[in-house]
Amino acid sequence: MGSRRNQETDGKRTFDKMREIKVGFASEEIKKAFDELKSGKFEDKQLYEFLERAIDDLKKNPFVGKNVPKNLIPKEYIRNFGIDNLRKYDLPNAWRLMYTLKGNELTIVSVILEWLDHKNYERRFKY
To answer: Where are the beta strands (DSSP E) in 1-127?
Structure first.
């Protein structure tokens, strides 16, 4: 029996092209911090560009980041954002973008939780 839905594979995960794919921020504060990077010093502007590239990738494929096993999700994320899944997108210069996926039959939303440099990433995940 044929399906109306076109499926596409990225080599790791299959997702449905019929779903609308969106990217959002977990809070207004996170969105504001992202917007402020654009007008900051050189390093901030560079990080803004890295994040813009990551957002473009997430709009094409929300599964592009690596899945973080449930037992490694920081309790702070669960408490503050009420998430049950977490993904990590590696940015240049050892930065990490942390996001979760929300969705239904019609939409997949990559929700950006935060971005961290390597030092803070290790602290957050207790490495």
So the answer is: 7-9, 14-16, 20-25, 66-68, 86-90, 96-103, 107-116
Place of tokens 């092209």: 17
Whole-structure pTM value: 0.85
Query: Which residue segments constitute the domains of the chain, with CATH numbers given?
Result: 19-124 (3.30.2310.20)
| Cross-strand pairs, 100 | 111
Question: What confidence tens digit (pLDDT) does each residue in 78-101 have?
Answer: 999 999 999 999 999 999 999 999
Report the amino acid identity of residue 60. Answer: K
The length of the chain in residues reads 127
CA distances to 21, 25, 84, 103, 108 from 80, rounded to whole Å, are 24, 13, 12, 19, 21
